[in-house]
Design a protein that fits this description.
The protein is mainly α and 333 residues long. It is built from twelve helices and two strands; from the N terminus they run ααααααααββαααα. Helix content is 65%, strand content 1%.
Length: 333
């Protein structure tokens, strides 16, 4: 009994002295861990280095890891390739039709007002391509990425290993949502850049005639095109949160992607039924095409602001639901 007590006291004293004077032992271990940015004790007692909460650079590192994983997947690259091909097809179709002496038409049969201006100014191909991809191609791509965010990890058996690291469920979910939003922006910019390149190659560039009939410089039109691309990307954050929530409900990535895309199609159908006009302003795709108001002079901001506010509301509601589900979920894979 006295030997055990003596051994304990001697070990504690030696460790404390060594940590204080020579930099070895338990005290040195804590100091090295703090300087290296790694906790000395994970889940240790209060007051230990590991109990001070996550380091900011750990969060950035987790986000970089998720971003790299997302954009290295062959599925993601294939989606970006399809999105880049859409403006090429639109530009070639317009060039062939106008080359045969035909016109693009006007009014409702000719599509959006800026679609008729592509032959006069290649910059309008950016607006036409974003209008063509926003209802279908862009949201489907985002639905695939968001739906696979958590469910894909669970299906692959890697979700448990991500949580074993000092990441935490909340920070992991935030990193996945941030990487999905980054994909929204990159996908939109890919469409815009492809359309600008094809438009410059096939059609002339110059002053831009707005929907209001006024003319602005090419530089001003280019700035508005960039702003439109950013707003289109922001229009998808509500869908990204919805897809992330669906992804926390299942361990099957394919099921989560299919459910997200199915919900997207269902909501878009509901948005076209006249009898449901009372609820349509609350559906996330309702104001998607409001970005066209940026091509007016002066710019009409009312529906653009409504769109951004609606997307923020969806992101808050379904982001919170995803957090509540993920933090209480039993991770078995």
């Amino acid at each position: 009994m006295s030997r055990a007590d003596g051994g304990t006291g001697s070990g504690a004293g030696t460790g404390a002295a060594a940590g204080t004077t020579s930099g070895t032992g338990a005290g040195a271990g804590t100091g090295v861990g703090a300087e290296a940015g790694v906790p000395a004790v994970v889940g240790g007692p209060p007051g230990a280095a590991g109990a001070r909460g996550p380091r900011p650079w750990w969060t950035l590192g987790l986000f970089r890891s998720e971003l790299t994983t997302t954009f290295r997947r062959s599925r993601t690259l294939a989606l970006l390739g399809v999105l880049a091909a859409v403006p090429v097809l639109i530009g070639i179709a317009v060039k062939i039709q106008t080359g045969d002496g035909g016109g693009m038409g006007g009014g409702p049969e000719g599509g959006p007002a800026f679609l008729t201006q592509i032959t006069n100014n290649g910059l309008f191909l950016v607006f036409a391509a974003l209008a063509a991809t926003l209802p279908v191609f862009l949201p489907m791509a985002v639905g695939v990425v968001a739906g696979d965010a958590v469910a894909g990890e669970a299906h692959g058996g890697t979700l448990r290993y991500l949580l074993v690291a000092p990441a935490g469920r909340t920070r992991l979910l935030l990193a996945k949502y941030a990487s999905t939003m980054a994909f929204c922006l990159v996908a939109t910019l890919v469409v815009a850049a492809s359309a600008l390149a094809v438009g410059a190659l096939l059609f002339p560039l110059g002053e831009v005639t707005t929907i209001s009939g006024t003319r602005i410089s090419f530089g001003d039109g280019l700035i508005r095109a960039l702003l439109i691309a950013v707003i289109v990307a922001a229009s998808l954050i509500g869908l990204a949160a919805l897809g992330l929530f669906v992804s926390t409900l299942t361990n099957s990535g394919i099921a989560a992607m299919a459910a997200t895309v199915g919900l997207l199609i269902t909501v878009q159908i509901l948005d076209t039924i006249p009898q449901l006009h009372a609820i349509q302003p609350y559906l996330f795709p309702h104001y998607w095409l409001s970005f066209a108001d940026l091509l007016r002079e002066p710019v009409h901001w009312d529906e653009i602001v409504k769109n951004l506010g609606l997307q923020a509301l969806y992101a808050a509601v379904f982001g919170s639901a995803a957090w509540a589900r993920f933090t209480a979920k039993d991770i078995t894979a």
